[in-house]
């Protein structure tokens, strides 16, 4: 059977997804809105074959153990059941994203896996169908099917929860995002465990849901009007409120590190000096700074005074999922 190969790019949520109402189907508690970026991505190939007695998963050239393969196999089980495929698969993935460091590696990884399965099995899925499938692997993966701005509509069932493109008249091409990589270590509390604890125990969570719904409306209007200040202010406030919910959980926890605070304070200092920029953070210590391209050189100059060059990556808006090729041999790197 064919090898399907796909590349998917990471997306960073400006209006966050934080919390599930259905763990099995990965249905979120709120809509979210993201910007797909070109700096970090995952390339994955898949081949279903009768030659294998079980799934086999290679990550960055290394054969993974059963524990690491479990999430991949769980997703492949969904594909096998949904499309009547009675075969195990070999999956080869190269991650150009620090894994589990708050840089949405699961989003690009599972989106690429969904795209590779689509190619390997000649499913010819529409973007909406592919987004729904990717969501079953990792919620935010449904947004990485699309380039630029995308909104994950929470829905209330498997069929109604998927991402859609948010029209911006190519305004995203004028924007950039600076990734401040303060820590690439594995997180103490995973995103999955963190959001579950927050939903179940945080005294701030209901307030978060109310605010997030309002933030989404404001952010989409800002994109429509190409209002950078409104989009940035809304995204920064939304991120801070999301992280506040973790402090209201039991037991409380945080993804911030001292360098996270250092980066956030530097963004505020840059704004005071007339550089319009705004930070956001996902479930990890790394800080992302939204800026207009016309100001990115000035922003980068400020950050290189306090962070090393290998901690700083500038990204532009990225494309949607790409199908790279389809071959007929079982190979891995």
Automatic annotation (TrEMBL):
<dbReference type="InterPro" id="IPR036554">
    <property type="entry name" value="GHMP_kinase_C_sf"/>
</dbReference>
<keyword id="KW-0456">Lyase</keyword>
<dbReference type="Pfam" id="PF18376">
    <property type="entry name" value="MDD_C"/>
</dbReference>
<dbReference type="InterPro" id="IPR029765">
    <property type="entry name" value="Mev_diP_decarb"/>
</dbReference>
<dbReference type="InterPro" id="IPR053859">
    <property type="entry name" value="MVD-like_N"/>
</dbReference>
<feature type="domain" description="Mvd1 C-terminal">
    <location>
        <begin position="178"/>
        <end position="311"/>
    </location>
</feature>
<dbReference type="InterPro" id="IPR005935">
    <property type="entry name" value="Mev_decarb"/>
</dbReference>
<dbReference type="GO" id="GO:0004163">
    <property type="term" value="F:diphosphomevalonate decarboxylase activity"/>
</dbReference>
<comment type="similarity">
    <text>Belongs to the diphosphomevalonate decarboxylase family.</text>
</comment>
<protein>
    <recommendedName>
        <fullName>diphosphomevalonate decarboxylase</fullName>
        <ecNumber>4.1.1.33</ecNumber>
    </recommendedName>
</protein>
<keyword id="KW-0444">Lipid biosynthesis</keyword>
<dbReference type="InterPro" id="IPR014721">
    <property type="entry name" value="Ribsml_uS5_D2-typ_fold_subgr"/>
</dbReference>
<dbReference type="Pfam" id="PF22700">
    <property type="entry name" value="MVD-like_N"/>
</dbReference>
<keyword id="KW-0067">ATP-binding</keyword>
<dbReference type="InterPro" id="IPR020568">
    <property type="entry name" value="Ribosomal_Su5_D2-typ_SF"/>
</dbReference>
<feature type="domain" description="Diphosphomevalonate decarboxylase-like N-terminal">
    <location>
        <begin position="8"/>
        <end position="163"/>
    </location>
</feature>
<dbReference type="InterPro" id="IPR041431">
    <property type="entry name" value="Mvd1_C"/>
</dbReference>
<keyword id="KW-0547">Nucleotide-binding</keyword>
<keyword id="KW-0443">Lipid metabolism</keyword>
